[in-house]
Design goal:
about 35% helix; 5-stranded antiparallel beta sheet; alpha+beta
C-alpha cells in the first residue's frame, strides 16, 4: 500500500490522501449503518474530477486494491463498509453543479452535490428536483441506492430522474451511459443498470438529471387517526380515486411520541397514527384535493385535521416527518444502544396488517420501536433500538418482518438498497437464478471484484460477512 500511496499522491496531491483513523472509521460505518467488525479502508482518496477517478482506478486495478466509494454517507444496511480494506474514494471535492439547462429542464452534476443544495439552486430558476431521501444525502449515493423519499408517490424514485451517468469502471475505463434526450432506445439501458448498483459495477462521477417545475400553491395537512388501519384505509381511497397528492406519509403512535420527546419539533403532537400530506398545483385543484381528503378522512374516523399553506408553517409541520429517524435514535435507553431498521414495501392493501404485526412483535419483546411509511406506495420503515442482550431478538423481529413482506408479494427493500445486510433475503425474494444473473453481471464488469465487493450479492459463499 505504501507504493500505491505514492502513486495516488501523484494523482491528487498530498492533501488528497488521508489515513487518519477517525476519518477512516467514519467512512466505513455510521450509527445507523454499522460496519461489521473493525474493517475499514487503509486510505481515503479525494479526487477532483472524472479523470482523477479513472487514474486512481487504474492504480487500484493494477495493484488489485479494493475500492469503496463514499458520497454523503447517509445510506443504510452496511453499504459503506470497506469489507476488504483497500481505499475509500471520497467524492466530497466533486461537489459542483456543472450545467443547468433551463429550457431542456435538466442539470449536469458531480456526485457530491446534495439534493437539498441542488434544490436551493434550482429554486432560483423556478425548477425542482423531486427525490428527497434523508438530510445530507448526495447525488452519487442516491444513484447508488436507487433511493426515493417522501415525494415518490407523485414523482417516482431516483431511477425516474436520472437521464445519464458518467461512470468509471474497475479498470479505469470511462463510460457515458446515455446522451441527454429524455428518451432513447440505443442499446442496453446502462443508466438503469448503474442506478441501484451501490458502486459495485462502476463509480459515478457525473450525472444528467431531469428536473421539473417547482411546485406551486403548496399546502400541508396533518391528520390524526385512532388506528393505523383507518389511516391506511383513507390513503387507499385516495389512491383509488386517482388523486395525485404531492406526498402522503404515515407515522405511527410510537413515532409521534418520539417526535414529541426528542424536541426536534417545536409543536406538541397527538400521539396517535398520523398522516402527513402535501398538496401542490393550482389553487382550485389544491382546495379540491383538500376537501376530498378531509371527507375521506372523516369517513374513516379522523381525530383531527390541521392544514396550512404558510411556508414557515409548512416547514414546521413537515419537520416532524423529516426528523422522525433522529427522534427515534434520541429515545435510546443507554448510549450504547444500537439502531436496526427495515425497508419493506408491500401492496398497499396489506400495509396496515404488516405494520400492526410489527408493532405487536416489538411490544411483546419489550423493545423500543416505531414504524413510519411512504404509505402511498406501500413502503414502510420499522425501526428498533436495542441493547447488546437484545441483539438477537431485534434481528429476528426484523428478519420476520422481511419474510412476511415477501409472503405478501412485497420486497425487502423499497428504497434503501441491499448493501450487506439484505443479500441473503434478496435470494429469498427473487430466487437463486435471479441473484446468480446479478452475480454474472458483477463479474463481467469487475472480474477482480474490486468495487464495493460483498455488496448486493455474495461473491463467495462463506465470505464471513
Amino acid at each position: 500500500m505504501s507504493e500505491a500511496r505514492k502513486e495516488l499522491i501523484a494523482i491528487v496531491g498530498r492533501g488528497g490522501v488521508d489515513d487518519t483513523p477517525g476519518n477512516l472509521k467514519s467512512r466505513s460505518g455510521t450509527e445507523w449503518s454499522p460496519s461489521p467488525g473493525s474493517t475499514c479502508a487503509a486510505l481515503i482518496v479525494f479526487p477532483h474530477n472524472t479523470e482523477d477517478v479513472s487514474e486512481i482506478m487504474k492504480v487500484c486495478h493494477r495493484r488489485r486494491i479494493p475500492v469503496t466509494g463514499f458520497s454523503g454517507g447517509t445510506s443504510l444496511d452496511g453499504a459503506l463498509a470497506s469489507t476488504r480494506g483497500g481505499i475509500c474514494i471520497d467524492f466530497s471535492r466533486m461537489n459542483r453543479i456543472l450545467k443547468v439547462h433551463v429550457r431542456d429542464m435538466d442539470v449536469v452534476v458531480q456526485p457530491a452535490v446534495g439534493w437539498e443544495d441542488l434544490n436551493e439552486r434550482l429554486a432560483e430558476m423556478d425548477l425542482f428536483f423531486p427525490p428527497d431521501p434523508g438530510p445530507g444525502a448526495q447525488i452519487g449515493g442516491m444513484i447508488g441506492t436507487g433511493c426515493s423519499g417522501t415525494n415518490a408517490y407523485r414523482y417516482g424514485t431516483m431511477k425516474d430522474w436520472v437521464i445519464s451517468t458518467t461512470v468509471v469502471l474497475a479498470d479505469g475505463t470511462i463510460v457515458k451511459t446515455r446522451n441527454r434526450p429524455r428518451k432513447s432506445s440505443a442499446g442496453y439501458d446502462l443508466t438503469r443498470l448503474i442506478v441501484g448498483s451501490s458502486g459495485t459495477l462502476g463509480l459515478v462521477t457525473e450525472a444528467v438529471l431531469k428536473v421539473t417545475s417547482k411546485p406551486k400553491n403548496e399546502l400541508v395537512a396533518v391528520i390524526a387517526f385512532p388506528s393505523t388501519a383507518k389511516a391506511v384505509s383513507t390513503v387507499i381511497d385516495v389512491v383509488q380515486k386517482g388523486i395525485m397528492l404531492a406526498a402522503v406519509e404515515l407515522l405511527d403512535d410510537n413515532t409521534m411520541r418520539a417526535v414529541n420527546e426528542s424536541g426536534y419539533s417545536n409543536k406538541e403532537w397527538k400521539e396517535t397514527p398520523t398522516l402527513f400530506v402535501r398538496f401542490s398545483g393550482t389553487k382550485s385543484a389544491v382546495q379540491e384535493q383538500v376537501d376530498i381528503l378531509k371527507a375521506l378522512a372523516g369517513k374513516h374516523g379522523r381525530e383531527s385535521f390541521e392544514s396550512s399553506s404558510d411556508p414557515e408553517q409548512i416547514k414546521n409541520l413537515w419537520a416532524a416527518r423529516k426528523t422522525a429517524l433522529w427522534s427515534l435514535i434520541a429515545q435510546k435507553r443507554d448510549p450504547s444502544d444500537k439502531f436496526l431498521g427495515s425497508d419493506v414495501a408491500v401492496p398497499i392493501s396489506r400495509l396496515s396488517e404488516i405494520i400492526e404485526e410489527v408493532n405487536s412483535k416489538v411490544k411483546a419483546a419489550g423493545l423500543l420501536g416505531s414504524t413510519l411509511g411512504h404509505v402511498g406506495d406501500g413502503n414502510f420503515h420499522a425501526s428498533i433500538l436495542y441493547g447488546e442482550k437484545d441483539k438477537v431478538t431485534a434481528q429476528r423481529i426484523i428478519a420476520d418482518i422481511q419474510r412476511r413482506g415477501i409472503e405478501m408479494e412485497g420486497t425487502v427493500t423499497g428504497e434503501h438498497g441491499v448493501g450487506l445486510a439484505l443479500r441473503d433475503m434478496l435470494e429469498v425474494e427473487l430466487g437463486e437464478s435471479a441473484v446468480d444473473m446479478m452475480r454474472k453481471i458483477k463479474f463481467a464488469l469487475d472480474p477482480l471484484c474490486l468495487l464495493n465487493c460483498d455488496k448486493i450479492v455474495r461473491v463467495e459463499h462463506n465470505d464471513g460477512q
